[in-house]
């Protein structure tokens, strides 16, 4: 406890400034009573008269601010971001990690040293300009919305702790650009893509390279037939979450239970189901299962190599494959670089143009919103009305089958192909796919 010393300098300003010194310390503490609350400050002074003068100056400054309807004591924005990050530790906010990264990369470096009660609209304009300069290109509107939401929460924290008034919070503007066209594969590119991916597998110099290419081939086929998100949604999928013969209203489907990824992170649901007709979606799963070999456990990851290991960076491996088969960029103007996410856009594009699901049903199936579908696929036209034709998995399946599975037999990835083979014709559509297509035509 601070020692009390009988000295006329210990109590000042009618008792609203009190000096105390802690046992074992040589520095005086100042306790200032402002608006009925005590504020404690370290004076950094060892002489009681110097400490008293400093404390009175601080008190007078605070009272001046109070009389002019300002907060008595201001802080820096980095103080508010630090407090906000501390508050996040005890919250269950799903976007907490994203906000921490935003603060570290985009808020503290430019705004951290500014006083909270002096932040102005000009400072926000300067911040947005600085971000664009650092990024090297304009941000999308959705990214700017995320940045603004984080900074707004920081200001709310400052208001809650009395470091700024609500009327001092500046208006945040969104100067981001509308979402750009998403790169995808046209329907007539899917079969050539899969043919080239399949033919590239035996050309790998190392066995690990050949195995990665084979796994990527199955991964891409399943992306095309389900519209799932690449990354966490599929990378964390286990065999116990895949039902290859789930029945509904007399029809069989492949049902995938998603328990990780974007939809799970940002919504209250604990899992999401993706379904596709078993006739067209089961073959790639069965081919993958056969390639991985016996001894499969229900808790094993679906997308793993035969030795049980997983690909560290599926996206990077896929980019290498696209570069080798000269399909990295789409046909847009200007051309846009494709990624594994392009298959999700291909699925959505095909479904919107040919599908029977309403936009609400498609959004539910893909784990997104109607607004996002309208934002990214409005150029397709049919968004104005509900899509009219058949299910996407059946429509996309002939393109998949035309380059797929070599009748279900995987490559022998233990050996590099010695002589290049010439494909005289695309492999036949597996019987299950042909049956599904014939049923569709009927």
From TrEMBL:
Where composition is biased (Basic and acidic residues), the residues are: 409-424
The protein's matches in InterPro entries, at most eight in alphabetical order, are given as: CB, DNA_brk_join_enz, Integrase-like_cat_sf, Integrase_catalytic, Integrase_recombinase_N, Integrase_SAM-like_N, Tyrosine_recombinase_XerCD
Tell me the GO molecular function terms.
DNA binding
Instruction: Describe the location of the Tyr recombinase domain by residue ranges.
Output: 181-390
Q: Where is this region: Disordered?
A: 404-442
* PROSITE patterns xref list: CB (PS51900), TYR_RECOMBINASE (PS51898)
On the tree of life, the source organism's domain of life is Bacteria
Core-binding (CB) domain boundaries: 79-159
> What keywords are annotated for this sequence in UniProt?
DNA integration, DNA recombination, DNA-binding
A single GO BP term for this record reads: DNA integration
Keyword Amino-acid biosynthesis present in the record's keywords: the answer is no
Q: Which family does it belong to?
A: Belongs to the 'phage' integrase family.
Task: Report what the protein is called.
Answer: Tyrosine-type recombinase/integrase
Gene source species: Magnetospirillum aberrantis SpK
């Amino acid at each position: 406890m601070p020692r009390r010393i009988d000295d006329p300098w210990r109590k000042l300003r009618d008792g609203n400034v009190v000096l105390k010194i802690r046992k074992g310390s040589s520095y005086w503490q100042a306790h200032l009573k402002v608006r009925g609350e005590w504020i404690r400050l370290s004076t950094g002074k060892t002489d009681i008269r110097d400490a008293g003068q400093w404390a009175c100056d601080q008190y007078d400054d605070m009272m001046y601010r109070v009389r002019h309807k300002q907060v008595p004591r201001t802080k820096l924005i980095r103080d508010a971001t630090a407090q906000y990050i501390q508050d996040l530790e005890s919250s269950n906010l799903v976007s907490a990690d994203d906000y921490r990264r935003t603060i570290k990369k985009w808020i503290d470096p430019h705004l951290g040293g500014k006083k909270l009660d002096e932040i102005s609209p000009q400072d926000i304009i300067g911040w947005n300009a600085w971000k664009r300069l650092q990024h090297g290109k304009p941000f999308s509107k959705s990214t700017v919305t995320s940045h603004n939401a984080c900074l707004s929460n920081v200001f709310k924290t400052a208001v809650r702790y009395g470091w700024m008034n609500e009327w001092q919070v500046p208006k945040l503007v969104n100067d981001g650009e509308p979402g750009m066209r998403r790169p995808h594969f046209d329907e007539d590119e899917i079969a050539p893509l899969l043919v080239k991916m399949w033919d590239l597998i035996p050309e790998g110099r190392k066995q690990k390279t050949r195995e990665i290419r084979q796994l990527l081939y199955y991964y891409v086929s399943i992306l095309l037939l389900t519209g799932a998100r690449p990354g966490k949604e599929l990378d964390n999928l286990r065999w116990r979450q895949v039902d290859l013969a789930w029945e509904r209203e007399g029809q069989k489907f492949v049902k995938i239970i998603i328990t990780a990824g974007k939809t799970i992170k940002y919504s209250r649901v604990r899992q999401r189901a993706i379904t596709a007709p078993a006739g067209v979606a089961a073959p790639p799963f069965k081919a993958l299962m056969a390639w991985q070999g016996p001894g499969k456990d229900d808790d094993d990851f679906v997308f793993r190599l035969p030795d049980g290991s997983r690909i560290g960076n599926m996206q990077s491996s896929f980019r290498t494959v696209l570069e080798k088969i000269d399909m990295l960029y789409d046909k847009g103007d200007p051309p846009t670089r494709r990624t594994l996410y392009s298959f999700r856009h291909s699925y959505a594009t095909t479904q919107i143009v040919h599908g029977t699901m309403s936009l609400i049903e498609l959004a539910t199936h893909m784990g997104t919103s109607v607004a996002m579908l309208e934002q990214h696929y409005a150029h397709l036209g049919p968004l104005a009305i509900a899509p009219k034709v058949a299910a996407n998995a059946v429509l996309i399946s002939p393109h998949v089958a035309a380059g797929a599975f070599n009748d279900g037999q995987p490559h022998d990835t233990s050996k590099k192909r010695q002589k290049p083979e010439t494909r005289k014709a695309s492999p036949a559509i597996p019987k299950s796919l042909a049956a599904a297509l014939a049923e569709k035509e009927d």
